[in-house]
Structures are given as C-alpha cells and as structure tokens.
Amino acid sequence: MNFMSDNSENHCRLRTFNVIDDFNREALGIDIAVSLSAGRITRYLGRLA
User: Fold this and answer.
1) Residues spanned by the domain of 29
2) Which of 2, 26, 29, 39 shows the greatest Cβ crowding within 10 Å of its Cβ?
C-alpha cells in the first residue's frame, strides 16, 4: 500500500492510494480523490478484500 500525489493542469492536487501485490507486481487497486480520509481508505480496503 502506498500514497502518491500529483497536480493536474488546473493546479488541482490529486491523491492516489495504491495497493500492489509485491510477489507478482500486480496492481490490485487504485483509489483516486482530492482528499483521502481514513474512513474512505477502510471502506476501499473492505471492498477490495
């Protein structure tokens, strides 16, 4: 699991939450939002499981 951020062309900051399988380097899921709260992350991990 990893957080990343980037800026769009209109200077809006986007955050991503990436879940990657270390064994085969497969991306299991990516959640993108302007703001990633703890509640959103736990709901996302629950759906992913």
Assistant:
1) 2-48
2) 29
